[in-house]
Design brief:
single chain; 14 strands; globular; four-stranded mixed beta sheet
Length: 419
Amino acid sequence: MKFHEVIKLPSIAHYGLRYVLPAAAVAACVLVLAAVSLPGRVPLPPLLAPEVTKTTADGVGGDRSGCDIFKGEWVPDMSGEPPPYTGESCPVIHGHYDCMRYGRPDLGYVRWRWRPDGGCEMRRFDAARFLAAMRGRSVAFVGDSLARNQMHSLVCLLSRAERPAPWTNGSYAYRFERHGLTVAAFWSPFLVRAVETDPDGPTGSGAGLWSLHLDEPDAGWAAHVGAFDHVVVSAGSWFYRPSMFYDRRGRLVGCNTCLSPNVTDLTLRYSLRMAFRSALRAAATGGARRRGGRAARRTVIVRTISPSHYENGTWNGHGDCVRTRPARRGEWELNAMEKDMHRIQVEEFAAAARKRGKGAARMMLMDATEAMAQRPDAHPSKYRLWQPDKFKVSRDCVHWCLPGAMDACNDMLFHMLIG
């Protein structure tokens, strides 16, 4: 199996409708457990409570005091509290993220908290309050394996107040029965319809060659998104892969690193922009759903990219992430492509948010990029489940140890949705 291949997990239907929304069965999704950064990746050198959320330029995505929780720095957590969960207390964590279980010798990566600038304090995630406020509702994470990474973090944080079903890492839909809350993940690394046409890819690297139908949201999630109250969209790293771009009429319009002499290389900037445009349009469609006989407005949240942190080599060479402390502000700068990817995501969010109308979804931006860029210490590296017969990449500097830095993204989610 090439590193880009996926492990297929049972469909949500396998667990029965009691684990999903009664309003709609969630389609079977496929989750990648070890997808990592991609060919052409250049290693770098050496985001609510209303009062702590910045209003975006067009008045959406936050409120109200001008205090921006997405700008700040990591500071030592002096609370003296133990980690909020472990692989022992929350078996939902897949071995790919369970750094403690797989022998990471230090726990320093869990002893930091994100502190926004300007004297703002971001409250710690309150599981009981989240469950109470979200009673009878649902949250979907749509995207690649980093979306699943955040979903597992949220489920583990909530499990401190209520154990979900099923109580295993083999699922991608979790039901908190006492509160009627469903948390699910949809595997869709390109967000749009994608077909792998060559497993080896144009260079034989194993990155594959993909046909991306950029005007067609992936039906694996888009056909069922109407059943969810809150949808968190995130994707990025798979767009590095060689791919051919098709429009709604099936016409080839360009590619990314396809090495075809008669096809214009539009780069991943084009596919990322068009895919996010299609995905956000689909996620916001039919923004009002029925709950308790009343229309309930959906919330669509865009979480911006989190960079990988390979140093002293590349993902498929000798690159690794061995730091044991967060980077200081400005110490780790995004490379040019990552800056463009972040800019495109913010621009497409803003464009989608401006298209407001009757029943329109509420659009919010979780600009977590700066916070995650400062955490080169918080990746699994070699301290994870690794199956060399399935995955060639032995050092993971893309995903995030759980517990760890990804929990801060759910602190942000808590403040954005609950306040």
